[in-house]
Amino acid sequence: MTGALTVSFTRRRGRADQVHVTRGDMTTTSWEFPSYGDALPHDLVHLVVEEGLDLTDGFWGLIDQGAYVVMVGDQAVLTRDGVPLAQRPDTDFTGLRRAEEAVAILGPQPHLEQSGKIILARVDPGSFATPDLPGTARRLGFQLPQSTTSDRVDTIHTRLRDLARRWRDVEDGTITLTWHRASTSGR
């Protein structure tokens, strides 16, 4: 890839939100997804985390390499040439799994509330603090990329908090981000 990946996330209150992508090779793709309301779209969190940790072979790396997103119900399915990547034996999902694990730990964190015998998990759209990253990763059975440093985590969380404020303030509008892929993956 020679150029940067540019992604526009469009909030459309009362209907599905949208992503439009211009890949490094200047090809484009777009998809709609069910609204997350005031919470940041999951794919936007992926972009910030993957860029912040130099994960070049995660979700956005696959998109930049020509994968497409097709929504099946409320589930995103990655495809290439009309075939789901999960059905292609040549697809390596190691980077995607690593990115999903990093997003699970560094993205919005749920707060558990007990109501009688029921425990509810509520997500504050602007809550990105993970006090014990290594402990959380261990409990979940995840391995954080080697590129995960406290400075990078602070930078990621600061950027996510800023974007969360911007997303909440958007009525019907767009946030555009550009990602210059690093040359190596943060493994």
Walkthrough of the structure:
The strands form 3 sheets. The chain has a 4-stranded antiparallel β-sheet with strand order 3-2-1-9, covered by helices on one side. A 3-stranded antiparallel β-sheet has the order 4-5-6, with no helix packed on it. The chain has a two-stranded antiparallel sheet with strand order 7-8. The model has no long low-confidence stretch (mean pLDDT about 85). Helix 1 crosses helix 3 (about 95-105) and helix 1 (about 40-50) packs antiparallel against helix 5 (about 150-170). It is built from 5 helices and 9 strands; from the N terminus they run βββααβββαββααβ. The radius of gyration is 17 Å and the shape is globular. It is α+β, with helices and mostly antiparallel strands. About 30% of the residues lie in helices and about 30% in strands. Strand 7 and strand 8 form a beta hairpin. The two termini are about 20 Å apart. It has one domain (about 5-180). The protein has helices spanning about 40-50, 60-65, 95-105, 135-140, 150-170; strands at about 5-10, 15-20, 30-35, 70, 75-80, 85, 110-115, 120-125, 170-180.
